[in-house]
Design a protein that fits this description.
The structure holds two protein chains of two kinds. Helix content of chain A is 48%, strand content 14%. Chain A is of the alpha+beta class. In chain A, α3 runs antiparallel to α4. Classes of the chains: A alpha+beta, B mainly alpha.
């Protein structure tokens, strides 16, 4: 069961200041939900660097190695194929396929990786139960603070209001 | 808002004198070496000339490309590129020994009989293009184009520094730079392409490859970007442009380096693969000269050291954003450029037999010493960034992504 306090701010500057203020008050588990990327928010929230590039690297190298292996096995081992008198194991001729395959697998892995990292196949999220949260894709800058107990909830609520939140709501995953 | 005072650059006086003096001495040594071994010295000199010229032309290409694409973020690191690109006339002077050594360098000047009847017949066909007067006239045209474009871009940018603020005249100067770059970029690239064909490819006049010049040009851009990265990481003192660069500038610089590295490898490999798979006698000679007799380890070193290893290093954002790490990768790449140009030029002298003559080193040091001295002379007394460029502030606050 997760609980969040959602605070809406009117401008990206307010959001940045509020995130800084909350960190100064000791809140660390926060996320920002904004209509466009806000410069500097990553540093304020001290989000860990994305692991997606690593996925792309592994998939790319794997795709390249796999493509070379398949070509070598099918043309030099399993069914020796003489093309115009070239060697059966024609390394240079395999490289274009290796390159294409590396690009394809890296791009495919990143495409699917982003979807999985975004939480799919889950189709909704408790935040969307909040009618006003629609503004997160229009003109509202939202800050979500994860809270564990009632004391934390009250403290976060007070902090968000003190930092200038236009509205504060509690979202509870179990309530759905 | 912090305030940064940018003094003019007036260091490097001793380096300038030292590099210039050392360069003259090294060139004299090359001349002495050329007395005993004229062909070795001529090829060594051509290798050194091609390497240092590629730095100048690589800078001119990427600088003109920045202007033509109206790029704003590189404003902070533009000045070193401008100074390097303005060195075209210097290389026109450096070209004189190449022109004098033509009989030693280019077999088509007086075709040797061992080319065979077919080879001589082919060369006779190439006569309307490959003859001494037309060769020299083309060289004059190339240096004229590079000298005028590189010189104007540098001069306008320096003239802009003298404005009192961001003035209307200063904005006009920026517009001039952009229009000149966009208009002449095709001409500059065509001159580079034909120059590669004339000065490097015609060392083996019976061989041809259409991607050759592109590969050499990409190598030049790699060298120029690597030089900027080293200068930026090394010059982080007050008033030097490196101090104004943040991780984001270094990341973009590293990304451009990676892109041109990939393009170089793509051109080089596609040339190799097409020739390898077609396996035609008149085409494979060029690679036989560069793979047999001890050259193979050099070719493997190029594949690994000029592409594979730096490719994976430059994938890492942490390395690109860390000035010192990027500078080390760049220094390694400059060394690999030396190996690449050596591998392009020297096998023409002794095909299929790895050779080395000390005049290559002295010629490289000589031309390098003089080039560095001239660059320092151009840089001294000026700012290390285009201080009155209307986009400098934007460049200093480059947004994320």
């Amino acid at each position: 069961m997760s609980r969040w306090l959602l605070g809406e701010f009117r401008t990206s500057q307010q959001l940045l200041e509020a995130a800084r203020g909350l960190r100064a008050r000791g809140f660390t588990r926060m996320d920002a939900l904004t209509p466009f990327p806000v410069e500097g928010i990553d540093e304020v929230l001290s989000l860990p660097p994305s692991r997606l590039p690593l996925l792309g690297l592994v998939a790319g190298v794997g795709g390249a190695g796999g493509a070379y292996l398949v070509q070598w096995f099918t043309q030099a081992v399993d069914w020796p194929l003489d093309v115009g008198g070239r060697p059966l194991h024609s390394g240079p001729a395999f490289i274009p396929i290796v390159f294409e395959s590396a690009v394809l697998s890296a791009a495919g892995a990143l495409f699917l990786g982003v979807l999985v990292a975004c939480g799919l196949p889950r189709v909704t999220h408790p935040f969307f139960d909040l009618e006003d949260f629609r503004s997160a894709s229009i003109d509202g800058f939202w800050l979500a603070v994860t809270v564990v107990d009632d004391a934390g909830r009250d403290a976060a609520d007070a902090a968000l209001r003190a930092l200038g939140a236009a509205q504060v709501s509690l979202v509870d995953e179990a309530r759905r | 808002m912090s305030r940064v005072v940018l003094p003019r650059y007036d260091g490097g006086r001793r380096a300038m004198v030292g590099a210039g003096g050392g360069g003259v001495l090294a060139l004299l040594a090359t001349l002495v070496g050329g007395w005993g071994a004229p062909r070795e010295a001529a090829h060594g000199y051509l290798f050194a000339f091609a390497w240092w010229l590629s730095l100048c032309l690589g800078a001119l290409l990427i600088l003109a490309a920045f202007h033509a694409s109206r790029a704003r973020w590189p404003t902070v690191l533009r000045r070193p590129l401008e100074i390097m690109a303005a060195c075209g006339p210097l290389f026109a002077v450096f070209f004189v020994p190449v022109a004098l050594a033509m009989p030693q360098l280019f077999p088509w000047v007086s075709p040797p009989a061992d080319l065979g009847a077919h080879g001589l017949h082919l060369l006779a066909h190439k006569r309307p293009y490959l003859n001494v007067p037309f060769f020299l006239a083309r060289a004059v045209l190339y240096f004229l184009v590079w000298g005028v474009v590189g010189g104007a871009l540098w001069r306008w940018s320096v003239r802009q520094d003298a404005e009192a603020g961001i003035s209307e005249r200063g904005i006009h100067l920026t517009q001039h730079q952009r229009r000149l770059s966009a208009g002449t970029l095709p001409l500059v690239v065509l001159c580079l392409s034909f120059a590669c064909l004339d000065w490097l490819m015609s060392l083996e006049p019976l061989w041809q490859s259409t991607v050759y010049a592109l590969s050499v040009g990409c190598g030049g851009v790699v060298a120029a970007l690597a030089t900027v990265a080293i200068l930026a990481a090394g010059g982080r003192g007050p008033g030097e442009f490196g101090a104004l660069m943040g991780p984001r500038h270094f990341r973009r610089l590293g990304t451009l380096l990676l892109a041109f590295l990939c393009l170089w490898a793509y051109c080089g490999f596609s040339q190799f693969m097409l020739i390898w798979i077609a396996s035609l006698p008149e085409e494979v000679t060029w690679y036989r000269a560069r793979l047999d007799g001890g050259w193979l380890p050099v070719a493997v070193l190029l594949a690994l050291g000029h592409f594979a290893v730096p490719f994976f290093l430059l994938l890492s954002r942490r390395i690109k954003e860390h000035p010192r790490s990027l500078a080390w990768v760049s220094a390694w790449l400059l060394l690999m450029r030396v190996v690449d140009v050596y591998w392009l030029v020297l096998p023409a002298l002794h095909p299929g037999r790895a050779s080395f003559h000390w005049t290559s080193v002295t010629a490289w040091l000589g031309l390098g010493g003089l080039s560095v001295a001239v660059v320092l002379w151009l840089a001294r007394g000026g700012y290390t960034v285009p201080v009155r460029d209307p986009f400098l502030l934007h460049s200093l606050r480059v947004p994320e992504q």
